[in-house]
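Q: A reviewer asked whether we had any structural model of the full assembly, not just the individual parts. We don't, so I'm hoping you can provide one. Inputs are below.
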Amino acid sequence: DADVTQTPRNRITKTGKRIMLECSQTKGHDRMYWYRQDPGLGLRLIYYSFDVKDINKGEISDGYSVSRQAQAKFSLSLESAIPNQTALYFCATSGVAGGEQYFGPGTRLTVT
Amino acid sequence: SQQGEEDPQALSIQEGENATMNCSYKTSINNLQWYRQNSGRGLVHLILIRSNEREKHSGRLRVTLDTSKKSSSLLITASRAADTASYFCATDARSNYQLIWGAGTKLIIKP
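A: Here is a predicted structure for the entire assembly that you could use as a starting point for your response.
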């Protein structure tokens, strides 16, 4: 089984809808991250969490919120989706600060 | 803001040839990492080089780091069709340990 799983894998939604992307990991890591990837721009950090009680904004947090339900689960919400949030979203974990990150398979989100 | 910039943006070579891609960054770092991404899939960690290291090998991969020039290179020797992917460098800034990503190099290996 994959160490980092994301659901859903693909989602099409309409402008203004609320949507939640979920991430689960079996690595036992405390650190979890949400990124978005747009063509030609690499990865940009949305939110990160160093443990259940520690959540931090990343480079592009506006329009997003997160919830760390447990060490293994980290969810990303778009409260009111807009078309420029169409992107590929990745969850990742790491065992140490600044160390190797383990990625989920991604969620392809389209906002129409 | 992006810390790392890869060069070239795209590279197409024949199978068996060596592929070299470069990464430049802006601020002091603790380490630099290279990742591979097959089309539309999750990224896979390839290698990490610390700021006090100059060269590191892993199988057919060779990474160099020049902190004075704030640059790194990834060499893939004897390329294979399965090496076709995008390659990203990521640096962790000394200030907060978050990874900052470049835009990637798209590598195509022609059979």
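A: Points you may want to mention in the reply: Chain A has a mean pLDDT of 94. The longest strand of chain A covers residues 43-51.
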